[in-house]
């Protein structure tokens, strides 16, 4: 084996040794170290009821064991999104407050509970993540335009019905008064 | 303009319900003093519907998006019926769309209903202060003032309450800056609601003047 063959063999052995030691998950180059690990992140999306994102809103996260002291603070991005990674050892309901210009809200996110595994966990396989996305889209978007239209229509019809009912009542009342006035005039005549 | 759940502390919400209860009692007493208390119910029901829908009509005024309130219009046209009408409209908005909330129903009724009562009084000034003017000028002028003032006072109450009740968990400076920005966006809306109120009362005066409170 010549010198070149020994060098190639050495590199192959070194790389196989490195992969067996778990170095394949790290990329080392000129002092830059990039690592990755799976975590359970939660993304919230804040919108006005018109669908406009609540951008640059202040966000405060409270852990289940201390609901009075902020666990994390931040702001939403231009799309109204905010991502945080809860401590998996603190199971229970994590509270997230969002506020901007007197508008905002409070939401509770279960972490480590049975409901969380179906709804919130972000470390699910890709097919389950699709289900999670659809869950969020249903809850964040709220009512469909048809549902909203039916609700507005029903309220308007209730108000119009009330107006018609009392109009009839007032009409009868005024006609009774007219009748009594006519009778009074006839009796006087 | 609607205060959501969890924005204000409990003592403010309880105070809001107390003031709303007093205002409702005052309005119902004034209604009961009338010769026929049910006479104003039809127009109150129709304007409740208008108030309910108005919060869904958004106007983009940079840097924010604001929506109609119409509490000044309700005050001018309904008089003492305005506060109960706004209370019912807010209840439907909270239950149906989540605008505001049930815990904040009282304080929201105060924010929008009390200025409506003031707007009703301003609209009555057309007989005392505005009697030197021509009737149609006086009607339009005080209709405008009623509509604009109703929204203006409501906006001041809203921003005053939110600025003075910023939780310590949030950055007060950032929140105040955002609130001032939204407050500025309501100044053009005051003009829009004032003009709209003047147009409505002018129309009612020409078509059916008995609908306006005398």
TrEMBL record, chain B:
The chain crosses the membrane at residues 12-28, 40-61, 68-93, 105-125, 137-159, 179-204. Keywords: Cell membrane, Membrane, Transmembrane, Transmembrane helix, Transport. Gene3D superfamilies: 1.10.1760.20. InterPro entries: CbiM/NikMN (IPR002751). GO terms for biological process: transition metal ion transport. It is found in: Cell membrane. Its main location: membrane. It comes from the Bacteria. It is a multi-pass membrane protein. One of its GO terms (cellular component) is plasma membrane. This is Cobalt uptake substrate-specific transmembrane region family protein. It comes from Lyngbya aestuarii BL J.
